[in-house]
Specification:
This protein is an alpha+beta fold. It is 40% helix and 22% strand. The protein contains 13 helices and 17 strands. Strand 4, helix 8 and strand 5 form a beta-alpha-beta unit.
């Protein structure tokens, strides 16, 4: 792989722990020294502003007409009022400095808790160049990345057979892939969106041939979690000449393969609308109120082992769990080979519960867990679903399961890689790491023999 940040050594982690304690202490002292008792008011105003903003956002989504208009005013007015309050008290700079120190404390504290060893990843094995690679490319994906980066020409120069899809003539990409394997293809690849990736990945797994991901889609979530370069999709083609291979899991929803996730509930219902592609925002705002209030759409019951989620408004079942402990890592998966589905269910009935979502994974309306199988039931014969962004309607019950190590993935040997995962913040461990260092150093000084006269 390409150059990755080296993990902190023990000395670096100790220094980071000390810096985290100093920055955290400084964040509190800045408020106390320059704001005094008013610091309590500042913190309370900030928390209240966040809660009101979250509540207003909920009302924008869940209501319509005049209530939605008033809620939109609240979303803008709440944070603005807090900032004006800080400015009128002449303490805006105090708040900003304290926040900056607090962010520094959290970043360095989490770095201090990182282990010396790198996290285990999928085991890579060297791979000989394929003899008959077959690639499918969607010229419309990612705003035309196939043409902009000359992907078809570059792939053909590396010996691949390339089929560029005709946007005006829909084609069955899975059938194209099966036909290619029958004709002797020993590698399948896709330059396109995650939905197309999933269809061809299913064929590759079925025939146990390696699969090449070319990051030519819009979001490229699968490519991101494989550690591929999303800025220049042509670098993915280097796997045809100098590649490595490893195995990853696949998710299945009633036999339909997904590489990222299957969604049920409000989002899945919204994308079913024919008007969604032409006007996403207007369609979403028009459809959501009835969905969130339970006045339209099926009532879902989700069974995850011994856990039952009754009536979630949104459900996400993912091929391996997404990170929820780090805002910077939301939408990313640490691993794709853990052999479990990630399950994220959300049920919010009022603005108060919406505000509680600010607590993240500890919010009462949020269920986050993992399982090897998830069963989605409903009070209707079918449910709308979004499989890697593709709108489908599935008969109930929908059984989602994980297929461990089902897919052989071929990637370039030299690639950006997946950023190392930092552990959640734990102030007790940070304090122990920093203070233990001090005590150990003091102990060494106390136990060191005094130098004798004339000695070195």
């Amino acid at each position: 792989m390409g150059e990755e940040p080296r993990p902190y050594g023990r000395a670096d982690r100790r220094r980071a722990a000390r810096l985290a304690l100093a920055a955290g202490t400084g964040a509190v002292l800045v408020l106390l020294v320059f704001a005094g008792l008013r610091s309590v008011v500042l913190v309370g105003a900030g928390v209240a502003g966040l809660a009101l903003t979250a509540a207003g956002a909920w009302w924008v989504l869940a209501r319509s007409g005049p209530v939605r208009a008033l809620a939109l005013v609240l979303v803008v007015a709440a944070p603005t009022t807090v900032v004006v309050l800080y400015m009128s008290a002449g303490l805006l700079w105090v708040v900003l400095v304290s926040l900056a120190l607090w962010v520094l404390a959290l970043r360095t504290g989490r770095a201090a808790l990182a282990e010396d060893i790198e996290p285990a990843g999928a085991r890579e094995v060297p791979a000989a160049p394929p003899r008959r690679p077959f690639l499918i490319m969607n010229p419309r994906s990612g705003g035309g990345k196939v043409g902009r980066f000359d992907l078809a020409e570059k792939a053909e120069a590396l010996g691949a057979e390339v089929v560029v899809l005709d946007p005006d003539r829909p084609q069955d990409v899975a059938e194209l892939a099966r036909r290619a394997v029958a004709d002797g293809a020993d590698l399948l690849g896709v330059a396109g969106g995650d939905g197309t990736q999933a269809l061809v990945a299913g064929v590759a797994a079925e025939h146990d041939v390696p699969f090449l991901v070319v990051s030519a889609g819009t979001r490229n979530h699968f490519a991101l979690d494989l550690g591929l370069d999303r800025d220049d999709p042509s670098t993915c083609l280097e796997a045809l000449a100098d590649g490595v291979e490893f195995r990853v899991d696949l998710g299945l929803a009633d036999g339909r393969v997904f590489v990222n996730n299957a969604s049920f509930g409000a989002y899945a219902a919204v994308v079913q609308s024919p008007a969604y592609r032409d006007d996403k925002v207007r369609t979403t705002l028009r459809t959501l109120p009835d969905l969130l209030a339970g006045e339209s759409g099926p009532h879902l019951v989700v069974r995850v082992g011994t856990v039952t989620i009754d009536g979630p408004q949104a459900l996400l079942v993912s091929n391996n769990p997404y990170r929820t402990d780090d805002p910077a890592g939301l939408g990313r998966r640490e691993r794709l080979d853990r052999g479990v589905l990630g399950v994220l269910g959300v049920r919010v009935e009022n603005a108060r519960q919406a505000a509680w979502l600010l607590r993240g994974g500890h919010a009462p309306g949020l269920t986050a867990t993992t399982a090897r199988e998830v069963v989605v039931e409903a009070d209707a014969p079918t449910v709308p679903a979004g499989i890697d962004g593709e709108a489908l309607t599935l008969p109930v019950p929908v059984r989602c399961r994980i297929a461990p190590g089902a897919l052989r993935v071929r990637v370039p040997r030299d690639r950006p890689g997946v950023p190392p995962v930092k552990p959640p913040m734990d102030w007790r461990r940070v304090r122990r790491l920093a203070l233990t260092t001090v005590r150990t150093a003091a102990g060494r000084e106390a136990g060191r023999p005094a130098p004798t006269r004339g000695g070195p």
